[in-house]
Amino acid sequence: MTKPLHQARRDRVEALRYDYASKPKTTVRHCNLCGHNLFVTLVHSDRYGYPARAQACRHCGLTFLSPVMTAESYINFYQGIYRPLVSAFHGRLIDASSIQQEQREYAARLAEQIAPHLAHFKGGDLLDIGGSTGVVAHHLKRVFGLRATVIDPAPMEVDVAKALELETVTTLVEDYNPGERRYQAVLMCQTVDHLLDVMSSLQKVHELLSDDGVFFIDIVDFRAAYRRNGSVEEAVKIDHPYYLTEPVMELFLQRAGLAIRAIDYAPDHLHVGFICDKSKPDPEASPCPEDVRDFFREIRAVHNRVPLS
Description:
globular, 2 domains, alpha/beta, N-terminal domain of TfIIb, 7-stranded mixed β-sheet, 10 helices, 4-stranded antiparallel β-sheet, Rossmann fold
C-alpha cells in the first residue's frame, strides 16, 4: 500500500537522522529590519517536521526563525545536510550537478531581464552572492563581458563554479571582506532568505556596489508561499532563517540605500525580483501599518482555513 505523500516525505527526512533540536542556536532579541522587539509566534514546526519556531515582528511584519541556528551550525548544515534534506523532501536527487539545468534556465531569463541595466558595463566586475555552482555568474559573464566572482558557503557547489574559471570564495556573505574592491553589478539570486543578517548584508551590498552600479535581488514571497500551500508551516523551513514579503523587502532596500528601479514577478508566481540603484540610505523609513495588520489577519485566516478573499 502506497504511503500518503506527507508520511513518505517525513520518513525520508527522518532517515537522514539530522538532529536539528540539538544544534547550537541563538534567540532573536530585536527585529533585523526595524529594531522592535514585540514578536508574534506564527508556527512551532517547519515543513520537514523539525521543531523550528517562526516569529514575526508586530511592528513591520518581518518573519524569522527564533531561536535560529548559529553561523557555524549553518556552515555545517550547508556542507553536509542541505542538499540531502531538500532531496529527501522532494523525493528526487537535488545536488550540485542536477540543479544546473534549472540554473541555466534561470540565468537565461535573468540575463534578458537585466540586459537594459547591464549592457554598458562590459569589462566591469560582477559579484554573485550565494552563487552556487556559478552557472548564473558564468552566463552573465559571457553575455555581458564581465569579470565574475562567486561567494557561496557550500564547498561542493563552489568546486563546480571553479571549474567554470570563475573567481570563488567559500564563505557566508556576512564574513566576506574584499577590501577596497567595488562591483558594477551585484547579484543575490534566491539567497536572501538564507542569510543570518539581512540588513547588514544589504548594507554590505551598498558598500560593495559602485556608485553607478546595479543590484539584483529576488525573494521567495512568503505570502505567496503560504497561500499556495494553504499552510504557514509548509512555507517555513530550517534552511531559511528569514521569510520576506514584497512590502518588507521594499522597506529593507529603502533603509539600506538601494533604490528600486524595476520589479519583476517570476513565471513561478512565487519569486519577486528587484533591480536597484545605489542611493542614500533611509534608516528611518517606516512600514505601512495597514500592510502589517493585513499580514497578521491573513496568517490567522490561513491557520484556521478561512477562505481568503
